[in-house]
Every structure is written in structure tokens, then in C-alpha cells.
Amino acid sequence: MVRSDTLREPRASVPAVGGDLPLDGVVYQVYLRSFRDGDGDGVGDLVGLRAGLADIAALGCDAIWLNPCYLSPQRDHGYDIADYRAVDPAYGTLADFDAVLDRAHELGLKVLMDMVANHCSTEHAWFRAALLAPPGSRERERFVFRDGRGAGGSLPPNNWGSVFGGAAWTRVAEPNGEPGQWYLHSFDSSQPDFNWRNPEVAKEFLDVLRFWFDRGVDGFRVDVAHGNVKADGLPDHHGTGHNYAMWDQPEVHDIYRGWRALGDTYPSAKYFVGEVWLPSQDSLASYLRPDELHQAFDFGLLVQPWNADRMREAIENALRVAGAAPAWALSNHDVHRAATRYGQSQSLDAPPPTDMISAARRTGPTDLELGLRRARAAAGLLLALPGSAFLYQGEELGLPEVFDLPDGARQDPIWLRSDGEQLGRDGCRVPLPWDASRTNLGFSPDGAAPAWLPQPVWLAGYARDAQKADPASTLTLYRDLVRARRTLFGTGPLRWLAGPDGLLGFTRGDGLCVVNLTSRAQPVPAAWPAGRHVVATSTGTDPATLPPNSTSWYQLAGSDTSGRGNQRHNL
Ligand code: NOJ
Predict the structure, then answer these.
(1) So what's the pLDDT on residue 444?
(2) Considering the domain 125-184, what is its CATH architecture?
């Protein structure tokens, strides 16, 4: 099938954004406990991060997004927050945080934190107070407490299920020791949901944001941004699909209007990107209104199989919804790593809309060589797209998912709550390999305690130090792509080219990006813009032909960007 040409103009040009963070930046996601361990306890921390920032800057990134590092009992590794104004001692101190911020800014990196406002931890002072206070009290009104149904209130107030498995309600013992009310938790029972219909909650979060903005933080990734408000009356869920009463309530938008208004009061306005998992990407648009979030992650591309039509469709969808600047990601700390996903058999069934996350957490036989080849090609696609690109730590090393973790080492509440039926997310959170010859593969200083999740022996083969020196490594490829991307593609719109099955091609700015998603070599179609030279390729060197499962970037003739500092990367 030959496609028809599609000319896709952006809805608007890339808007300038506060905090000087452009909406087409490259953001490196730091999963702190697995990035780098500075103090030798086997857990990544802020001192380790500070030492590793230069490597992130050397990759050419514009910003980091730091997963939660607040005080937390770590039942969901920081997504269960006990104090929003304190750093967890496992990660360091507020002074260590400030040192990270200063060093990042010195290196030209913006710093985004993670705001978790749907829920906190059962260890949070407000929740502890709520447990000691009677039903109907001001303390309980900050959360979603309800009487149970059935005899003696022994059944949950409604039939909602938790995202992590099991019921979304847990019963408390009242101060007199009697079984009492139930509280809502969309996730683990250690993560009680806030009652966002209570203005005290809204006020508290504005104050928390101000606390971090005043320290110099440049913005936030907003955790489950579609979650905070629940439908009035908490109606039962009918059917097995998406529970519309639990997510995406109209009132949720007031929260982001308030946050945006606060962020915009700073001389360098602050930036927000939302995590919004919804059955239809179309619903993202309402979070991107001019007075709400600047961006929301597009997960439509992440969950696609290795198939040209499906990927193109996902890209077109995202551009339609988010205009010129979607926020793309191919991996994060919640899904299996791309090098593994693309090495698994590729079902062309659309992921059930309510089950987007599971679609990116499949098990089964994996061809890792094929997966890495495709992941490298996918990086070439990702980094050529208009909008911002979020890179999850370790992607730049081509890391696969670690499936061979001992059961006893697994810590994800998804694993624990499903009694081991679902592997959960530990396999994409294994501490990074920095130097194969050192303690914990260089993740920790010499003589350190074992890494918090065991690193399999084979992980040594992906160590950063060896990749740095290897022109054919995945790290070198990422560095070349990130550096070349801005000068080659600029802020130009994406224009698809008509081509044969399995080949994606588009021009943007001064560049041409061609992705071969098939398992056979394919020539660049003769009808496509001529007079080009290769700027970067994920595999191979022949400018006229794309090897199987590869991406090449070309500079178009007559678009000499060398005067603007463009570099050639003939790999
Ligand atoms: C989404 C986060 O990315 C995930 O890691 C976390 O477990 C849930 N939200 C709950 O906060």
C-alpha cells in the first residue's frame, strides 16, 4: 500500500514557555534510588545524582525530572509521601537537594520534581491525625473516609478496585479499638487519597509548590493528574472497563488552573507536565488548555507494537491533540524497557484502552538483539518528533528489562498485592551500571553495601564507561541524536512522505527522518527529497539504503546549517 501524502500543520507554533524550558526539550528522567549511590548504602541518592549530572549534561539534555525524593516510608518508592517539605534521609538532606539544584543550573539543566497530589502516605501527619479523630471531623474531611455497607459496615463503601489490585478501600480501627470507617486509596493501602473537594487540601498544595519554587525548582511532573477528584457520591462501578467515576472529573481542571497561575507569577514562570492515562488520548486536550498544564505525556506511542501504520497513527493522534508539542516517552519507571518490549512478539491487537499500562508490561520470549536494534531505531524516531522527549535513565545504555530478579528481592506493591501474579515494575528500576569493574557495577562507591535491587551479572555488559569510549555504542548514538536534533529539525512542522509499507518518512526543518520498521533492507524512495547526507543512523552506513529495523537522519540539500553549529555524525 502506498500512503497518501499528509501535510500536517501544527495547531500553533511552539509556544515560549516559562522557566525558559522549551516545549521541545530533552528531559532525562532520574529514578533517584537507582541512578547513583553516593554514600555506599546501596541506594541511589542526591550526592550520587550530583556526581552524575555532568553525564546527563554531556548527553545534551535540557532538564531532569526527578522522581519523588520527599520523606516517605517507601512503600511505593516515594509515591507515598509523609512530608512534602522534607527530603527522605535515604536520599540526603535539603542541603543536598539545593546542591543538586545549583549544580544542575550551572550545567544548564532545568530541574523538574514530581508532585503527587492524589494521595499521600499513611505516615503523613494529616492521616495520622485523621485516624485519631472521629468520623465527620475536620481531620477526616481531608481524606475520603466513608462508613461501610452491610451489617455493621463490614463491606467497603463502594465496589471500586485499586490500580494495584484488590479493593480501593481499607477499614480502620477507631480510637476505641472498634472496627470503624473505610478510607479510599486508588493505589496501595499505604497511599490514602486526598479529598480535593476540601479547599484546605487545595491551599496546602499551593503552599507546597511555593516551597519548592522558592528554592529554585523549575517545574513539576504531575503524578496521576487525572486522578485527584472523584465523582460526587462515589457511585459503584458498573462493568469491567474504565471506572469513569474515579478519574478525569471536570473539577480536576481547577487544580491545574490554580497551579499554573501560581507558576506564572515567578519571573521565570514554572513548567508543568502531566501524567494522564485515559482511555482516549483525545481527553488529554482538556488538560492542555492555555491556563492549565504546559504538556501531558503522550503514551499512545509508547504502547504501540513495532509497526509503521500503528506508530504513524499514534503520532498523528498526539499531534492532533497536543498541537505542535506533545511530550513523548518510550519508557519510564512504570513500564517494561523498550529494548525488551520491541524484542517480544508484536501483537497487532490494539491495547484495550483501559489497560494501557499492562500493554507495556508483557512477558514472554524476548529476542534482545532484535529488541535493542529496534529500540535504537525508535530513539531516532522519538528524537526527531516535534515536542519534548523524555528519556528514562538507562535507555541511553540500551538496557533491557531485568526479568531474572529473585522473588524475594522484588519490592513493587503490584507484585506484593497480586501475590506474585504480576511481576510489577522492579525490572526497569535495577540500579544503573556505570563501571563494570567496580562495586555494584560502579553504581556505588567501592566497598558499598549490595545494591537495593540485585544487578544481574549480564548488566555489566551495558556499563556506561565502556559505552562512552565506543563509537558504535547506544550511548554514543543517543549523544549524537540529542545533539543533532535541534539544529537539524529546529521547531519545524512534521510533513509525512508517501512511501512503501513499513517505512516511515517525514521532513522537519532542515532534516529528513526515515524509519524502516521491516525486517528487510529498504532503499530510501527515489521520490523523496534528494541531495541529502546522513547526519545519524541507528545501524549501518549506506546513505541510500536503510538496514532492517533502523532509522537514519539526513540533512536536506540546500539547508546548510553548519553556520549554526550543526555537527555531522556519520556513524
Ligand atoms: C504513577 C507513578 O508513575 C507510579 O510509579 C506510582 O506508583 C503511581 N502513580 C502512584 O503514585
Answers:
(1) 98
(2) Alpha-Beta Complex (3.90)
